[in-house]
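re: that chain from earlier
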Amino acid sequence: MPAHPLRALREDIAAVRFRDPAARSAAEIVLGYSGMHAVWAYRVAHRWWRAPGMKLSARLLSQVVRSVTGVEIHPAAVIGRRLVIDHGMGTVIGETAVVGDDVLIYHGVTLGGNERHGRHGKRHPTVGDDVVIGAGAKLIGDITIGSHSQIGANAVVTRDFPAHSVLTGVPARNRAEPG
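^ sequence. v structure.
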């Protein structure tokens, strides 16, 4: 069950302070963190998306937020608590993406689909809890990244990986696995 909006706001601010050593105050986060603004707007758009007759309004809100913050989160995506998008610009989270709790995403990250010609259904990544996704990483398709994993900058991930993975390279390989 989602946290009460005020509690969620406090959790988000605390998550940024925990994850970003440059964050000096709650006021700075509330006023100046575009990634946080994108997450908060997503939460409104997601609520609208689920309400009858509000899909267009939700989609339009998401596009306004994209133009202001540089972060595009489809309102149908499912995002857990305390998501931190640091620097944000160029980040895209697709329609059927699922993101767990306590995830940190850096700029230029794509959680994208790989299906063509209007196919419906699950086509974007599922990311577990407490995952760090480095700048420029691309996670493509209906894949699952296990909890407590780390994805390096510019990695291209196109298949499932278990919890506690350390993914780097193109295509990504799990550096936490022997051999």
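The helical segments are 5-19, 26-32, 34-50, 55-69.
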